[in-house]
Write a structure and sequence with these properties.
The structure holds 2 protein chains of 2 kinds. Chain A is mainly β. Helix content of chain A is 0%, strand content 54%. In chain B, the strands form 2 sheets. In chain B, strands 2, 4, 5, 6, 9, 10 and 11 form a 7-stranded mixed beta sheet that branches. Chain B has a 4-stranded antiparallel beta sheet with strand order 1-3-8-7, with no helix packed on it. In chain B, strand 4 (31-38) and strand 5 form a beta hairpin. Chain B has strands at 4-7, 10-13, 19-25, 31-38, 42-51, 54-57, 65-67, 73-78, 87-94, 104-105, 109-113. The chains are: A mainly beta, B mainly beta. Chains A and B meet through strand 5 of A and strand 4 and strand 5 of B.
């Protein structure tokens, strides 16, 4: 079983739609959680950290459920520019991050 | 600040050739990482370093060596390239304090081994 698992998609949604991605992790001792965004043929960049209490940044909301060991990302009012691959990332403790394989989002006009 | 830079951006090697990928960061970060990214497999950690003069193995270290002689540089070497090492290689860095700190990535090196 992979340490971090994501639905690869692609999720094809129209502009203005709300879309949600889930991610599960296997290590219950994991300490920190993130969503990174990766555009085609570019490097990953931090989108947002994920906190136990949940956090929101504009149209993006991230949630963490430690009991069920999953993380979610909700995007409201999708824009064409949101098209990218979204990587779920977990710090299992120490110096290393574990990356999911990513979920592809395509927003269409 | 240039952030994290990688050279070269593209390279084609023949099987058995060697090469070194260079990563440089100007953010005074203690930690540096080398990943490879293959379709459908996400980023996999090759080697990492927690400080100048130290290195450690990641998830997929075989066939690679690294060195961190200076804090700002992290080199990844392929001694005898194989087609299985065709991939996109990303370098990253972050500060030591706190596991929740952002990891900054370089633009990547696209390597093809024929």
């Amino acid at each position: 079983r992979k340490e971090v698992e994501q639905d690869p998609g692609p999720f094809n949604v129209p502009e203005g739609a709300t879309v949600a991605f889930n991610c599960t992790y296997s290590n219950s001792a994991s300490q920190s959680f993130f969503w990174y965004r990766q555009d085609c043929r570019k490097e990953p960049k931090l989108l947002m950290s994920v906190y136990s209490s949940g956090n929101e940044d504009g149209r993006f909301t991230a949630q963490l459920n430690r009991a069920s060991q999953y993380i979610s990302l909700l995007i409201r009012d999708s824009k064409l520019s949101d098209s990218a691959t979204y990587l779920c990332v977990v710090n299992t403790g120490g110096n290393k991050l574990v990356f999911g394989a990513g979920t592809i989002l395509r927003v269409k006009s | 600040n240039a952030g994290v830079t990688q050279t070269p951006k593209f390279r084609v090697l023949k099987t058995g050739q060697s090469m070194t990928l260079l990563c440089a960061q100007d953010m005074n970060h203690e930690y540096m990482y080398w990943y490879r990214q293959d379709p459908g497999m996400g980023l996999r950690l090759i080697h990492y370093s927690v400080g100048e003069g130290t290195t450690a193995k990641g998830e997929v270290p075989d066939g690679y060596n690294v060195s961190r002689l200076k804090k700002q540089n992290f080199l990844l070497g392929l001694e005898s390239a194989a087609p299985s090492q065709t991939s996109v290689y990303f370098c990253a860095s972050r500060t030591r304090t706190g596991g929740a700190n952002e990891q900054y990535f370089g633009p990547g090196t696209r390597l093809t081994v024929t």
